[in-house]
UniProtKB/TrEMBL annotation:
Pathway: tRNA modification; 5-methoxycarbonylmethyl-2-thiouridine-tRNA biosynthesis. CDD domains: Elp5. InterPro entries: Elp5, P-loop_NTPase. GO terms for biological process: tRNA wobble uridine modification. The keyword Cytoplasm applies. The lineage of its organism: Eukaryota, Metazoa, Ecdysozoa, Arthropoda, Hexapoda. Belongs to the ELP5 family. This is Elongator complex protein 5.
Length: 301
């Protein structure tokens, strides 16, 4: 499925890419930007985590790169030169994107956010969620205005990690969770989990291997569950034995000794013709109180 999203054959209004320090998603993020810039779209990259210079060196010249990193708190008083950072301080992510859309040239816009993590720390989960929800509503109502949002989130560096990730996954239409990163300089395959919510509400989940080529094309294939296939050939007794340090099986000598063992208080044989029903054995006692009268005779019927 990944290749259909990067090539834009399959549309998704809000794509979130989850990565971590060990498995970065920068090359996959660049792939979405590069492929969108080749089409009749206006591509915006909003820098919350990295300086603008990082992206100007590697992205196409027709990509619009916006600085919300260098003075995102207004400490350097440079907002006269960059009004967008002032908008970010006052109105957050929603205000920044709306400012870009209001100054568009009529082309559908694709907005790529290099990281939501600084936004979460700056404005909190509630504000970030509301802003993304509002932008998603705009994208669904008018794709000619806002065609797509693509955002990266560092799952190992967000505040209130589990709650934040669950909320972001719930909001996104597509989530890519990087398990093993791939780059154009490596011939190896990466690994990721894909969760996509279709327009009708159906959710599709898949584990895929992927590889990013030097021209930013993507090859992807479904990951087969080799572990499940291999487990079908394993002896269940051996599998259970591996779960404990106790010996669960008997050797032939131990099995023979067990069969010959006579347990106490057990009858070893049964006379011929004796049925298997139960019997009650009672020995009368001298202290027993026997009453020969029928107790029902006392009833006044």
């Amino acid at each position: 499925m990944l290749s259909s999203f990067t090539s834009r054959k399959t549309h998704s209004s809000l794509i979130i890419i989850e990565d971590n320090a060990d498995q970065p998603s920068s090359y996959l993020f660049q792939t979405f930007i590069h492929n969108a810039s080749l089409q009749h779209l206006k591509v915006h990259v909003i820098c919350f985590e990295n300086p603008v210079e990082k992206w100007t060196r590697i992205l196409n010249s027709n990509v619009n790169i916006h600085d919300c990193f260098s003075d995102h708190r207004g400490w350097n008083n440079v907002n006269e030169e960059n009004d967008l950072q002032g908008v970010y301080q006052e109105k957050g992510l929603l205000g920044v994107v709306q400012e870009l859309l209001n100054h568009g040239d009529g082309k559908p816009s694709v907005v790529c956010i290099d990281s939501l993590t600084p936004v979460l720390f700056r404005h909190g989960l509630n504000k970030c969620y509301r802003d993304l929800h509002a932008l998603l509503s705009i994208a669904r109502k008018d794709e000619e205005k806002l065609n797509q949002l693509v955002a990266v989130i560092h799952e190992d560096a967000v505040p209130e990690r589990w709650d934040t990730l669950e909320q972001m996954r719930h909001l996104a239409t597509t989530v890519f969770q990087i398990q093993l990163a791939s780059s154009p300089n490596s011939s190896g395959w990466g690994l990721l989990h894909v969760t996509h919510r279709k327009a009708g509400g159906k959710i599709v989940k898949q584990v895929e291997e992927y590889r990013i080529e030097k021209d930013y094309s993507v090859l992807s294939r479904e990951k087969k569950n080799q572990q499940l296939e291999a487990s079908e050939d394993v002896d269940p007794t051996v599998a259970v034995q591996n779960l404990t340090t106790f010996k669960l099986t008997l050797n032939p000598q131990e099995e023979e000794a067990r069969s010959q063992l006579v347990l106490p208080y057990t009858r070893q044989g049964r006379p011929k013709g004796q049925s298997g029903g139960g019997k009650v054995f009672y020995e009368p006692d001298a202290a027993d109180d026997w009453d020969d009268e029928d107790p029902d005779d006392d009833l006044d019927v």
